[in-house]
Amino acid sequence: MTALAGMWRLDMRPDAGDACTSMLAAQALYGPHGAAGWSDGPIALGRRIFRVLPEDVHDDALQVGAGGRLVMAADVRLDNRDELLATLGIGNDRARTLCDAAVLMAAYERWEEETPDRLSGDFAFAVWDRERRRLFLARDFMGHRPLHFHRGKGFFAFASMPKGLHALAEIPYAPDERRAAEFLTLMPEGDSRSFFEGIERVQAGHLMVVTADEVTTRPHWQPRRERLKLRSADDYAAAMRDLVDDAVRVRLRRAARPIAAHLSAGLDSAVVATSAARLMAPAGERLTAYTGVPRRGYDGPVPADRIADEGPLAAATAALYPNIDHERISATRPLLDSLDRNFHLFEQPMLNLCNSWALAINDAARSAGITVLLNGQMGNLSISYTGSEALAELFASGRWLRLIREGHSLVRKGGMRWRTVAGKAISPFLPEALVRRLRQAPPDLHGYSAISPERLRVLNLAAQAESRGLDFTYRSRADGFSARLWALRRVDLGNVNKGVLGGWGIDQRDPTADRRLVEFCLSVPSEQFLAGGVFRGLAHRAFADRLPATVLTERRRGLQGADWHEGLTASRVTASEELERLEECAPAAAVLDLARMRQLVTDMPSGGWEKDAVMQSYRLALLRGLSTGHFLRKAMRSNH
Prior knowledge:
Elements (H helix, E strand, L loop, with lengths): L1 E8 L6 H11 L8 E6 L2 E7 L13 E3 L4 E9 L2 H7 L4 H4 L4 H12 L9 E9 L4 E6 L8 E5 L2 E5 L2 H4 L11 H8 L15 E2 L4 E5 L4 E5 L13 H18 L9 E3 L4 H14 L6 E6 L13 E2 L3 H8 L5 E6 L9 H8 L9 H12 L4 E3 L15 H7 L3 H15 L3 H9 L5 H7 L6 H4 L4 H6 L2 H7 L12 H9 L5 H11 L2 E3 L5 H9 L2 H4 L7 H7 L5 H5 L3 E2 L5 H7 L1 H12 L2 H6 L2 H9 L9 H24 L5
Parallel strand pairs: 13-14, 13-17, 14-16, 15-19, 17-18
Antiparallel strand pairs: 1-3, 1-9, 2-3, 4-5, 5-6, 6-7, 7-11, 8-9, 8-10, 11-12
């Protein structure tokens, strides 16, 4: 992985090289294994590398192509590297000496602006065209690698992380209050703004062309709505198995041998971990599997539909594979102890401070010398999609007998009520106001968000949410394709991935977010995911021979970090002190409902943490409010 930087002095000042050097130095923690740069008066590009791939030993300079016309700085892992090499006619002898950035340059020489659509993998890159005097930037379809930029007076600058841009005196250091408010309402990523004023990001799945006259951007990833037709349900399952194994296989490429994976009680991480174990076994390699669990002896109550300790189910999966070394990890630090470090590493508020177990797993992996950590973060939108929108699709297409059969199966096998079946089938086509009246307990934004009601009104966020497809009733959507595509485009994980690299030296890789796998899952008819009253039915069929029956049949979801409230209670004094500081921070005081947050800290309960109202108020509203407020305060450089 790599930290990128670049400067184009449109006013022709010749100090672009110095500016680029400063931006790279500010990002040294993301690329400690060496810097490389190129400059030509008013234009400069550079990178700092973190070597995680075998071929990274050949990445010792920026890539120059087309006879010197093109210069590239790239942060890239090409998962279809072999396919590209074959298409480009690059033989094995030469390929062994090429880093992924060099292969990417060869691809760009061939396809130029069409290159991103030919790639599978994680990437962010920039290309300077010396003849056309234009800069080209792009990110992968899920945005796993970050890329930020600033359009200033007489210059254009880019860097992987905001701290690179903030190395320049011309760029102001201040938070974007509106973006923070959107974050508190779980607003989808709808534009290019970052959490810092004046700093934008190349959006996931987009490309950008910068000239002296204009900046244009467009999406390069636009999956077509295609309905895949295979002969049988078994064929869909076999195709998914093959794609999952391939997605895992290409993500096992690494320079250092120790490798690990997350392993929860659920399907997604179990599918990834077991596929990795199967692929590694013939070479005698071992896989460390980490499961986040509550502290030893924890017996606190949890909601009836949740699992407090995912360790036993994860252990059942690991026991099927002799080359899996299973470790259970508990968080030990107070929740708010990570605030300052989070700001430094991620440069954005963290959505779920309650997930301190994930940081504890990072600590364990780093101590074990792990540099690659697999996860199944996007599995709910790919391999283990529930298929629930199939009910609405059946209703809309008039296939009501099939709808009744599926509904009956869900009631009989899945314990679902007919009222719920009808709601999933019909509610997407009803006005939102009517849905709210019909629902017994519609979600309340102010129940799970600490946003100031006044700020919500002034920014007109409700109307903006509607324009971005966010329905605060959280009802089912009309079809599975649009539901998943909307959710895939909702988040940007680039800063988080880069922060984990900088803080722990770990490259996070998600096979369930593989482009080819995601596009396959989007094309599979929703009924294949929901069949015979079984949600996630396709994943059940595909991996029934790889996972324990207890994992496949478990209907409850894991409550990750079930002892989270103990970490919050241990941070009670810290929370009070942070709220005092936020009172003096104008952006935080404007965006947050500080009076409510203070009351929550004052009234912090000693029990009842499993209740919905308490979970929403503390696990969601208070912790996300503190995360956002701390970010705003730090970004204002106030009350250090």
